[in-house]
Amino acid sequence: MSDEEQSTGPLLAVEDLHVEFRSRGRSVQAVNGLSYTLDEGETLAILGESGSGKSVGAQAVMGILDTPPAHVTKGSVRFRGTELLGLPEKKRRDYRGAKISMIFQDALSALNPVHRVGDQIAEMLIVHRKSSRGEARKRAIDLMDRVRIPSAASRVNDFPHQFSGGMRQRVMIAMALALEPDVLIADEPTTALDVTVQAQIMKLLAELQEEMRMGLILITHDLGVVADVADRIALMYAGRVVEEAWVEDLYARPAHPYAEGLLASVPRIDVRDRSLTPIKGSPPNLAAIPSGCPFHPRCPRARDRCSTEVPELRLLQTGEGAPDRSGARSGAPSPHRSACHYAEEVSGGR
Amino acid sequence: MVPVLIGTTLLIYLAVFALPGDPIRVLGGDKPMSPAVYQALRHHYHLDDPLIVQYGKYLWGLVRGDFGETLNGQPVGDVLTGGWTVTVQLAVTAWVFELVVGIALGVWAGLRKGGVIDTLVLSGTTLVIAIPGFVLAYSAQLLFGLKLGWFPTAGTDDGWPYSYLLPGILLGSLSLAYIARLTRTSLVENGRSDYVRTAVAKGLSRRRVLVRHTLRNSLIPVVTYLGVDLGNLMAGAIIIEGIFNLPGIGQQIWLAIQVKDGPTVVGISTFLVLIYLLANLVVDFLYGVLDPRIRHD
């Protein structure tokens, strides 16, 4: 493809990203040292509760935060080795939508109500590729076909409100994929949809990802969605990743008490008569994140050290002292990381 | 529309004829009038019929395009055509002024929310809204017309646009304040909306995001207001036409009220109601064009 591809390393690498919201002298740390990588063709699920910084982190990667009040104070976002954070706005725009694309939770409010869906899709091609209106329109119909909107050619001139929720999200996807981006960030793409439509949209996303070999970042709070489609999970708490692993590994051997708590709080079809255990307490106040490990006030395993020493996100050590490779796929080393001082104890204690 | 028209004309009709005093006596002035002439005049103007019959006859005339006759024996239609051009010129001047300057100020303020321009626009418009229109008009007439001599103080001798500039600006100033504030608020609100975020995420330039996405949506309520306001301006011209002595329909209705010239008052009012209703109708259609969600399929 392009010459940029010569550079080895991940497709997208986010490192130590910090985002702060400032207003009237008060500041809130929404993202606190977020790090992850994404490879071509891979699906990374970023899982976290509301306020964990998963959406803000993604918007910082896209460069679409509202500044002010949001400021990226520290960190790095590299796309195929190119640092995006320092880029002048004009250069940054060449990546936005073309290389890294994003779809949002509520397609009804995310699509412009006064423009025809065909025009909204075509706008991508007209602006980025300098296509003619006619060409762009034809391509828009192709794209609508590709996301399986029935009789696309006759619906291209309809307005967003004339579509059902699922179809609207398909329009959104068609628009985001118009320029065949390398990375697609899907910010809770199915939260606003009912369950059957959710499954269709997730299936469509998985198929398109396969076809186009994109890296897909799936932001969600739904453990069920993750299990079906994701390769890896990054679990966020208080603005940083607290555990990262292959999906199977995280479900089988959670290595952070927060992950453990989450799994204990959802019903499982394969375990009978299990009572659900909620996580105690409430999500942290981002204006005053607890000292040490931000999870320690809610953690059943917390010890003295946890309230003073911030645990780093580190590779899990297995009993033999070698990295845990059990869940490895296609020869890649298992990157099971956890930000808990007692990760090995947590993961072994199951 | 038709029931509204009937309702409003009836109300105006009743209000005018409920006024104390006898219009025929006023017509005669100080001079005594012979009973025969008095009766003839009353009959001529159908004043000897019951009120409801009078109204019926009036309405029937209206349907045939006959606005009736003033107490001076002049057809009201002629009075309207005479004053019409002046008032339309005045209203259009005011309208263009509030449209251009109001939207420009609103966009400027909205783009720099919380900045110096924004604060100036917000406080300036509050001031304009707070000061009664005639105070503003007299002060401006005194300052720009008499003291500085930049504009004519009265009459239409200098023609359009010069004679109409100052009155037009003053007539439009109140709506301008509303339009600037409406544009600003709407722009700020839409700027935070999800679809604007989508537009940014599409990698569009700031300018394209603003013009095609934010502004396009922000102007929907503004255009609606502007449409209805064209009717308002024609009616609101009464005070400004009086102050600047412009011979428009506003001034004529003012004079007619003073001499209890019922047919003229009702005629001009009816005409204004018609204009107002038409403006509303146009806005309704325009609204569908601007906002596809309202379009009637």
Automatic annotation (TrEMBL), chain A:
Region (Disordered), start-end ranges: 314-350
Pfam families associated with the record: ABC_tran (PF00005), oligo_HPY (PF08352)
CDD domains to which the protein is assigned, alphabetical: ABC_NikE_OppD_transporters
Gene Ontology terms describing biological process: peptide transport
Record's GO cellular component terms: plasma membrane
GO molecular function, one term: ATP binding
InterPro entries named in the record: AAA+_ATPase (IPR003593), ABC_Ni/Peptide_Import (IPR050388), ABC_transporter-like_ATP-bd (IPR003439), ABC_transporter-like_CS (IPR017871), Oligopep_ABC_C (IPR013563), P-loop_NTPase (IPR027417)
Keywords associated with the record: ATP-binding, Cell membrane, Membrane, Nucleotide-binding, Transport
Domain ABC transporter: 12-263
Membrane topology: Peripheral membrane protein
Subcellular location: Cell membrane
Gene3D superfamilies hit by this protein: P-loop containing nucleotide triphosphate hydrolases
Family: Belongs to the ABC transporter superfamily.
PANTHER family registered for this protein in UniProt: DIPEPTIDE TRANSPORT ATP-BINDING PROTEIN DPPD (PTHR43297:SF2), OLIGOPEPTIDE TRANSPORT ATP-BINDING PROTEIN APPD (PTHR43297)
Record protein name field: ABC transporter ATP-binding protein
Biological source species: Actinoallomurus iriomotensis
